[in-house]
Each structure stands twice: as structure tokens, then as C-alpha cells.
Amino acid sequence: MPCLINGVKSLIFNPVYFFKQPSFLFIWGVYSGTYIVANSIEAICECNGQSSFYPKFVGSSIANVTLSVLKDKAFARMFGKGDPKPMKFTSMGIFATRDSMTILASFSLPGLITAKMQKDANFSATSADNIARLVTPVSMQILSTPLHLLGLDIYNRPVATNPERISFIQQEYLKTAMARMARIFPAFGIGGVVNKDIRKYGKAYLSTAYAK
């Protein structure tokens, strides 16, 4: 909470410093890069009359995992315990799995959940889609947080025993899950809804412009 409060104060009272921080720039690069790739793939598939379900998942996963692993590698060195050290492929693989789960929940599963909500619960298309995009990425953090903690613990304590790792995950799980949910909700929850609307109005504008 103190870090969150200080971050908000910095954003309000010293925004130039906030936006120049490497920690912000790494996060911004991950999310903007992921959305650019996902939107590009979806646009190409729509132009070709093809489903974007699998291409978008694969492409955005590759982009997000690559950028996230680079970000986590930098963060682990910036904020990890002790002197910076090489990150093991085990930790990188765990981080890649964690991020693929988030991408699946952000770009692929909402469409399936939306259809299910419309069919079984009589939600309108807009309401079902918005709820699915807001809730699904956040809910996935319940499952991916243990992987996040495991990857970091392997980096910070390479010789720890399995019981020690389990104890660490249990101790840190709740607050880490809440922190990850708080980060994912604006990035892929609200961001997913806003991105959908931007694409919708952007397509309508371009269709009108080219029709003229």
C-alpha cells in the first residue's frame, strides 16, 4: 500500500518523473506491444474472412511472453535479492506459461464466455462481452499467481527446497494475487473493453472514409 500511494502521488504531482521511470516504460512496452500485435492479426484475419481465434492467441502470446520475459528479467535484476545474476531457463519458462494464461484469458476466452452468457443467462451481447472482458483476465490471476511466485523464488533462491518454495508461495499468495489483479484489471480488463470500442469506431470511420 505505501508503494501504491507513493506511485499515485508521483503520477499526480510529478508526472514527467513517473512516465520516465524504467519500471513504467517496461510495463508500457509490454502492453502496447501486445495490443498492437493482437489488433494487427485480428485486422488481417477479418480482411481475409478468417477466424482470428488461434492466430491472435498464438501471435499475441509470443509477443506478450517475449516482452514480459524481458521485462521480468530486468525487474528481477532491478528488485531481486543480492547481486544481479543470470535468469535460469526454468524461471523464464514459468513466466512464459504464466503470461500465456493471461493472454488466453484476455483475448481468446472472453468470446467463448460471452456466447455462453448470452445463451444460458440471457445477457445482451454488449453486457456479456464487457463483463467477460473485465472479469476473465482478472480471474486467471488466481491460477497464474503461484507460477509467478515460483519463477521469482527460483531466481532469488536457486537452492531452496520444495517445502521452502511451497511455504513461500503460501505466504505471499494473497497479496501477490491481489496486486496482479489490480494491475491486470486496467491493462487487459478495462483495456480490453476500450480496445474493442476503439477498433469498432475506427473500423466504422475507415469504412465511411473509404466509401467516399
Overall description:
By secondary structure, this protein is mainly α. The chain has one domain (2-192). It is built from seven helices and no strands. The radius of gyration is 19 Å and the shape is globular. The model has no long low-confidence stretch (mean pLDDT 91).
Q: Domain count, please report it.
A: 1
**Count of β-strands:** 0
Mean pLDDT: 91
Low-confidence stretches: none
Question: What's the N-to-C terminus distance?
Answer: 53 Å
- Share of helix, binned: over 70%
Main pleated-sheet profile:
none
SSE sequence, one letter per element: HHHHHHH
Report the β-strand fraction as a percent range.
Answer: under 5%
Radius of gyration: 19 Å
Q: Tell the overall outline.
A: globular
The computed structural class is mainly alpha
Helical run tally: 7
Give a topology summary:
Elements: H1 2-13, H2 15-20, H3 22-47, H4 53-79, H5 89-121, H6 125-156, H7 162-211
Helix pairs in contact: 3-4, 4-5, 5-6, 6-7
Pick out its properties:
212 residues; 88% helix; mainly alpha
TL;DR of this structure?
The protein is mainly alpha-helical and 212 residues long.
